[in-house]
Amino acid sequence: MEKTFTLFAAFILCVSQAWSAEVAVPSADKPPVAEAGQVHIVTALGLKFSPLVIVIAPGDTVAWEKMSSHNTQALEGLVPEGVELWQSSMSENFQRTFTQEGIYIYICTPHIGAGMGGVIIVGKPVNLEAIKASTVKGAVKRIVKKAIQAAEAM
């Protein structure tokens, strides 16, 4: 009887800790942690990505979720030199592992007019000067300004 009570108490303790804000609860909705690093979630909320700016380590993965009617596309000239550009499929969750340091600016292709885009800073912002020198306009310019502010605050 004592062994059953001890197991029950341990179960209750685990459940209570899982519901606290300090303990991450594994979920079938969350992608698995990549072997080389952490997985960071970016969520499409209406016509914005949350968080707008994310800072990660080389080897970490970014997973975009809740992508119904959205995609993610890297912008030429607004990623580190030599990086392969990406464009995810429309309305599909997507993940990408980042190994090269620098600033990455991305958009949602159909909703960039509404300002839907984001920034990933991987390690050191080695391409900050190139980002500052870019000649972009409109919503992309606002995203670039956020990238510069975040990189300079590091």
Written overview of the protein:
- The structure is a single chain.
- By secondary structure, the chain is an alpha/beta fold.
- It has one domain (36-152): Sandwich (Immunoglobulin-like).
- The chain contains three helices and eight strands.
- It has helices spanning 2-19, 128-133, 138-152; strands spanning 39-45, 48-50, 53-56, 61-65, 73-74, 94-97, 102-107, 117-122.
- The chain has a four-stranded mixed sheet with strand order 2-1-4-6, with no helix packed on it. A four-stranded mixed sheet has the order 3-8-7-5, with helices on one face.
- It is globular, with a radius of gyration of 19 Å.
Any key phrases for this structure?
alpha/beta; 25% helix; 4-stranded mixed beta sheet; 154 residues; Immunoglobulin-like
